[in-house]
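Single Protein Entry

Contents — chain, fold
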Amino acid sequence: MPGGTLWLQFLLCAGVITFSGSRLCRYADVLAEKTGLGRTWIGLVVVAMVTSLPELANGFSAVLWVKVPDLAVGNLLGAGVLNLAILAVADLFYPPGPVLTAADRGHILAAAFGAVLLGVATLALITRTPLAYASMWYVSLSSPVLLVCYLVGMQATFRYQRRERAEYLQEHPEEIEKILYPDHKVGDAVVRFGLHALVVVAAGLWLPRVAEQLAVFMGWHISLVGTVFVALVTTLPEMVVTLSALRLGAVDLAVGDLLGSLMINTAMLGLLDFFYFDGPLLLAAAPEHAGTGLLAIIMVGITVAELIYRPPKKFLRWMSLGAFLLAFLYAGNIIFHILSHQ
């Protein structure tokens, strides 16, 4: 297939994901208001699940169709790093001050569980034992550990946010009567939300095939394509939703989506292992992916530090020190991967 056609297919997938992703934010905000769950929880779970569907679709395609575990692992870990880097973009487009200062402290809990998930996956990639070699049939022990950690994290975060919201409404009873979207109905929002989610999944399903062919045509290493190239496109929904949420003033929806996507992407490594029948997925992937996992852990640490410290103003003119470090680390990661695979 000519290179121009491959690039056209790739850009078409990116455009479709971007278009549908841009519609998710408004309907998510409607659901947050109508259901009473709040922007933080809706962003962390519902929006994060939907915007992570391209990564999940890409992962299933990589392990079931093209049989390239490096593409699946590289894309999921690379998307996690990019999700954290998008926090820097959010900070850049949030003029009032550091975006993490405006975010709820409850995001610290989600970030902590994200670090735990990344630690489990990275440990399996680095040491290869006991989490990778200790397997049940063709599935490594790390996989159920990842899934359990994610479920525990979601339950703990839900309980925390419910308690915090109850206390807030008790102190501000006027918020109970406030209606943000009087002309919207829950059923309509759910249907529109679901339709755009299906479009995102359909585009994400085609990405691995195009990416593999591009890797061959361009002479790129497959792990570079997964960690950088495909991760960039499949993370476009998070980028679009984040910027749309900031325009609505829904900072917690934006931050929750990014941290929730980080957790889901890492937990997906455990889920995909059950569908890779040639052996443990993390054992089949290249050990160099552990570097991406370690980088993500460092970036989570920077995020937590800024959420706790809450600087009153931006260190630089356009972004906070934490946001600058996140952007710097991501840019360095991209350069490193490009140079190491030339």
The CA atoms of residues 58 and 205 lie 6 Å apart. The first strand starts at residue 135 and ends at 136.
